[in-house]
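Before the break, one more example. Copy the sequence into your notebook; we will annotate it together after we see the structure.
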Amino acid sequence: MSLRLRTITREEHLDFLRGRPSASHMQVPAWGEVKAEWRTESIGWIDEVGRVVGAGLVLYRQLPKVKRYLAYLPEGPVIDWFDPDLEGWLRPMLAHLKEQGAFSVKMGPPVVIRRWGATAIKEAIGGGQAKRLRDLEPDWYEPRAFDLAERLRRSGWLQGEDGGAGFGDVQPRYVFQVPLANRSLDDIQRGFNQLWRRNIKKAEKSGVEVVQGDYQDLAVFHQLYQVTAERDRFIPRPLGYFQRMWRALEAEDPNRMRLYLAYHDGEPLAATTMLTVGDHVWYSYGASADHKREVKPSNAIQWRMMRDAYALGAGVYDLRGISDTLDEDDPLFGLIQFKLGTGGDAVEYLGEWDFPLNKLLHKALDLYMSRR
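Here is what the structure looks like once it is written out:
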């Protein structure tokens, strides 16, 4: 199949995505409006009869003082990654992005390599069998993914080493997912560990009420988010970022973004955002108060989101990033510890890959990023 690539309209992009079971929330056209500091473009692969058979959202970040750009396709593009003629997809993309002034291209193929079930992970932690996920035998793996990685390397694509934590990429390489397809809600809850089930019941008995919020409630979410940022020592995004996200995603699809708040005695104790594309639902941002942790608002709000995702027909509830550490003494261990209680799977993606179109500028960007 001979493919050509061109800029596509927003509607062409959305029409293509509607015909697929899912795509990353960072590959919908509205995500470009969320990332207002980047220039954005929707690109499409066109077959011989003029159909759009692949699409990608490109974010362009300009270098200071010169019109050269880093072209970034987060968790994309959405193409046939296992096509034997992968070059037939990537070659026209690189040529197009170079014409647009890109000096380097970063992409994140949405391809899963391995999965580890919660049972196997818990046994490995309890028995000290492995210190990292990648040292543990997976419950499932995709053999074609290893061939894909080798083909990318041979074609000049580069992947940096991150020491195993899974945070060398901009987007997480390791995530935690709860499968919803072909299961009842009772099946899903039975998959929770005893602590999670007990905490959900405790929240119910304590009178925790989880409600779906609206645009006005983003201010409540943001107050809790700032408390969380101070506690966990990260730099919070401004309220305007979440307001822009809501406006852009809601305009594209009324179900694209939801806000949930957990109240106890009329006081907000936890808040979360949820994103949906096709049959994939993501827990996006979470926030919680420092007090009244004993009434378990976080467990209550997660269970409500899972039930709502199930009602939407989702096949996957995605709790997003974890590290690959299984070492209980590692500061990053808490990322997987809470999520393990859902009985889901740790999932490894292929990770992010770079193609230096201008090696000198690409190297300069690498040096700059390493010193940040």
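The domain at 4-108+352-370 is CATH 3.40.630.30 (Aminopeptidase). The chain has twelve helices and 15 strands. Try to locate both features in your own notes.
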